[in-house]
Each structure stands twice: as C-alpha cells, then as structure tokens.
Specification:
The structure is a single chain. The chain is α/β, with parallel strands linked by helices. The chain has three domains: 221 residues, P-loop containing nucleotide triphosphate hydrolases (Rossmann fold, 3-Layer(aba) Sandwich), CATH 3.40.50; 267 residues, no CATH class; 30 residues, no CATH class. It is built from 16 helices and 15 strands. Strand 1 and strand 2 form a beta hairpin. The protein is elongated and about 170 Å long.
Length: 554
Amino acid sequence: MITELYIENIALIDQVQLTFSPRFNILTGETGAGKSVILHSLGLVLGERIRGNIVRQSQEQAKIQIVADPVTSVFQQIQKTLQTTEIDDEELVTLHRQITQSGRSRSNINGHVINLKQLKTLGHLLVDIHGQHQHQSLFQQGMHGQILDDYGGLIPLRQEVTSKYESVQSLIHQISQLNHDYQKLKAEKDLLTFQVKEIAEADLQVGEEEELNKERQRLSNAQQLFELADQIYQGLHGGQMKPSLLDILRTLNKSSTKLADLDERIESTNQRLESTLYEIEDLAQDMRDYRDQIEFLPSRLNEIEDRLSTFSRMKQKYGATTKQVIGHYQKSVEKLEVIELSSEKIKIVQEKLQKVKKSAQAKAEQLSVKRKSIARKLETLIQKELHTLSMEKAQFYISQEQTDLTATGIDSIEFLVATNIGSELKPLVEIASGGEISRLMLALKSILAQTDPIPTLIFDEIDVGIGGHTANVVGHKLKQLSQFRQLICISHLPQIASLADKHFRINKKVIGKNTFITAKELTIEERVEEIARMQGGQDTDTAIAHAKELLNLS
C-alpha cells in the first residue's frame, strides 16, 4: 500500500504531501480544483509518460515521490523485476521521479537508479488506477487470463502448462541447434569422406619416411658404396694391390715373434702387434661382407620414390608432418561420426518433442475446460454486481478463443462489455465513460479482491451518473473492498465521501499573483463542512445536520 505521496512543482502545485490510510481514502473538491493533477502526478511516479510541459512555471524541475509498504509477495516481485536483493524486505519502498523543464526525467527506488520501463513495471505491481485509460491491469488483455486463473484457483494447473510449454520450447531450440550443426557438418561430409579415404589408403606410419630416405640414399649411391668398400677391402686384404696391409703385418708379426724369442722384454709389444693383425683381419672381413651385401635394385628405388612422393602429397594437403596428417585423419573420422550421431540424435529429440507436446496440449486442454466453467461463473457474478451499481443494461462476457499452445495455455482470454441494450460487446479499453469504467472495475475488484495481488486501487469518477440508492450501494461496496485493498478515490458524492477512513480536500488558492493547488487532510469538523458543501448547502443547518448524519452512519 501507499503510505505517503509527495508532489513538488507539478502544474500549479508548489508542495503537497499526503499521508494515506491503509484502507479507504477520499479526495474531494470543486470541479477544476486540481484533483486530476494529484492523480496524474501519482501516475507519473508510477511510470506514466510525461504529457506536455508539467513543471511549474519559473521552476527548473519537479519531484514526485511515493512511499509504499508492500506485502511480501509484491516485494519479491519487485526484487525479481530489478534482479537485485539489495533492497531489504524490512524497508519501506520509496519510488522517486524527478522531471526537468525539458521533459527529461530520472527515477530511482530506495536510491537505486532505474529506467522508465522498470518504473512502470513496479507501478503495475503496486497500484491499479481506474477511470482513465492509463495504468490499468484490466485494460491489458494479457492480464485477463491471469485474473480468471487467479479467481478460479487455476494457477497451479497453469504453472504445469507453463512448465511443459517451456520444455517444448527448450526441445524446439535444441532441435534447431542440432539441425544447424548437422547442416553445417553435412556440407563437409563428402569432403571429409574423400579425405578419410585418401589418408587411409596412404597408410602413413610415423618414422616410415625417415627410414625410406635412408634407404633411398643407400640405393642411389650403391655403385660408389661398392667401389669404396672394395677399395678398403683390397687395401686391407690384398688383391691387385700388392703387398696388402695384412701381408705387411704378417711379415712384421713374424719378425716380432723372433725378436720376442731372443729378448723376452719385447713380448708385450709382440702381443700388441699380433692383436692388431687379428683386428685388421676382422675389419677386412667386415668390409668384404658389407661390400657383398650392397644391392643394385632400380625397381626398389622407384618404389621408394613413389612412396616418398605419397608422403609429400599428403603433407602438402593435410599437415606439415606425418603426425599432423594422421591427426587430421582422426579428426575427420570423428566429425563423420558426429554427423551420423547428430542425425540419430535429432530423430530421438524429435520423438521426445512429440511426446512432450502431446502432454502439454492435454494439460492445456484440461486448463481450457476449467477456464470455461470458471468464466461462466465469473460472468454471472459480475453481471449481478453491475446491476447493483446502476448498470442494469450492461452485459459482461469473457471471450475464450482457441489458440496455438503458449506458456499460458491454448486460450486467448478477453473481457468484453456492452453498457447499453443493443450495444455490441467490446473490449474494456473501448468503453468511453470514465464513470462506467470505474464501476465496471469496482464490480470486478469486488469479486476478485481476495485473489488480485495489486495492493492499491485508485478510482477516478466512480460516481459519474449515479446518485440516491445507487450511490449508497457504490459507497458501501468501496468500503467493503477497502477491507482487502487500499483505496484512493475521487468522488463528488457525499454518500461515498462520508464512508472514507481519510478525507482530503483539494483546493485552488490565489496567493498574490499566483494560483496554487493545495491538499489538506480534513478534521471531523472540516469533513462535516465539506460533505455539507457536496450536498449543495454548505452553511445551511439542514445540510450540516445531514452531513453529520452521514458521518455517524459511516
């Protein structure tokens, strides 16, 4: 509920501060006194757009502020809207809007800066204004289904529908993403298949290229290798070269043996020479074996060249090294597997989507049937309420048209009304009379009071076109409604004003060369005078007596 309203420099207002009752508040005053300015100011701090230049002349800026004390459920929605928990739920909520002469504005809640969209959302959580076509939840068709479900206790069932719908949307998004990925990969499928086949047929092995290069070097130089090896062998063992190194060493070894026989001191030297002879013999044998093993294979050399050419071609296309080529092969194989798996996964998710859709549709149809029953009951109750509010000719109908599945079901719910016999049923927003709008809203709110979450209701011109018994009925309905919701009403009828818990009089005063709008909470004596004035007999004894009688009855 709103506990305080502060207005500064709006239109003809210098400063106005009102402290409201949590129940029934009335604003009265002469026609043109400025009651609409008060309500417009309240609308501005609740997020309404600025219309024209509203800042008082000679002033740079205007300020409007409300202090609210929301119930826990509304407070939680405020935190959700702002996506913050910085505002303590034990604090009062202060909404503040500052407007400059140029029409620019800044808003905040408890000192936290917010934008106009957030301000408007918060305003809808706190207040419903009826009588003008702004700031009314009942003029928003999207709220009609919410109201019907709240009244019928269908919120848990609707939440089930919402949950299933969200599952449907999640699966649709998942399928879309899978299809996107699949199409992207599918475009690569032929190329990947070719690459995998080509690399697989090449059958490259790590280290193979190095070994082939070594073998090619040997085969390419076979003649030179043979000649060099043979030359070394002939020099060691003998042949055309006479005498060979072995021939010389054998001769020397014989002389050394004789020397050792004559002088044993040379024995170790003799042994070393003999060992050298044997070593050279082994070397000669190894070199001969190496020479004899040298192959002259042109066909093998061609094979090696072809194989090395394959390595070169694969590296040019798929990587700088054999390892990189093999890595590319493995990644390509994995991508092909993903393509196959994606196709299968899409089928699985599509099957799941159909099941979830079917379940969601069934739950939505169940909700739709219950809504139809609740709608007929609510229509009857509201029709009765309208008749008691001097709208005997009015017809109220809840339209329920089938739609595709949405988060709220398969129904488009809209409240329609015809205020005169023969009139066409029309959406609420097309009702022209402010008084009819307010009484229709009063009828709705009287029935929905205990399920409607909005804590404060504002009724403008609710008594237009009524009087006598109907005025008494409207007044008492407002009084009853104020037991559940805070009411702030503008009224011209004494029967209604007398029932208020707080009564404010709006005046225009001329001070010097300036005119000001003022607002004052009335004492009991001042209320008697104001109600007497509203009866058209301000100072007569009869009017005063009647005013006192009305207040005693309230």
